[in-house]
Amino acid sequence: VGSGARIYAGAVLGAPGFGHAQDENGAAVRVPHLGGVVVEEGAEVGANTTVDRATFGETVVGPRARLDNLVQIGHNARVGADAMVAAQSGLSGSSELGARARMGGQSGVADHLRVGDGAAVAAKSAVFSDVPEGAVVAGIPARPIALWRRLVAIEGRLPRLWGRLIRGAGDGGRPGSGGTSGRAHGGEGDDD
């Protein structure tokens, strides 16, 4: 633990990572975790946060990184300098959160992934692929924030669009019959 680092009540540093194999009968067998944990200078580890020790090598919380309460950092993961992770979030084993990157509350990053330097993961998002440097992602699965916003806007309109589609299906979609083909590309009065 580096100088000026703060470890709050109930935090656990160095618990075995969640690594298991199966024996010949399919029963779970714990994989030994023989590595350690490094919390660098000025970092903060919040109350009831767990930083698992590495299988081999080190799980690292970088300088001045901030881990909120109730955060899970998996074995062999790396949290970069000045990165921040909000409450109830998790960085799975062997993943990396880059320098100055952010994870919003209740977000998660799957194993063996990288969230690039300066990137941000919105609250309640699930990351299943690498996030480029400086990118902002949201949703499940996490997508670039502009795409996520469009998808959320469309989702709210789906019931109305579905109703229009069903109403138009009974008449073959003939123009002027209330079907959809007459306004397929937008038209007067088309607010969708």
Commentary on this structure:
With 192 residues, the chain is α/β, with parallel strands linked by helices. The chain has 1 helix and 21 strands. The protein has one helix at residues 145-169, and strands spanning 6-7, 12-15, 20-22, 28-30, 36-39, 44-45, 50-52, 58-61, 66-67, 72-73, 78-79, 84-85, 90-91, 96-97, 102-103, 108-109, 114-115, 120-121, 126-127, 136-138, 143-144. Strands 1-6-9-12-15-18-20-21 form an 8-stranded mixed beta sheet. Strands 2-7-10-13-16-19 form a 6-stranded parallel beta sheet, with no helix packed on it. A hairpin with a 4-residue loop joins strand 20 (136-138) and strand 21 (143-144). Residues 179-192 have low confidence and may be disordered.
SSE inventory with pairings:
Elements: E1 6-7, E2 12-15, E3 20-22, E4 28-30, E5 36-39, E6 44-45, E7 50-52, E8 58-61, E9 66-67, E10 72-73, E11 78-79, E12 84-85, E13 90-91, E14 96-97, E15 102-103, E16 108-109, E17 114-115, E18 120-121, E19 126-127, E20 136-138, E21 143-144, H1 145-169
Parallel strand pairs: 1-6, 2-7, 5-8, 6-9, 7-10, 8-11, 9-12, 10-13, 11-14, 12-15, 13-16, 14-17, 15-18, 16-19, 18-20
Antiparallel strand pairs: 3-4, 20-21
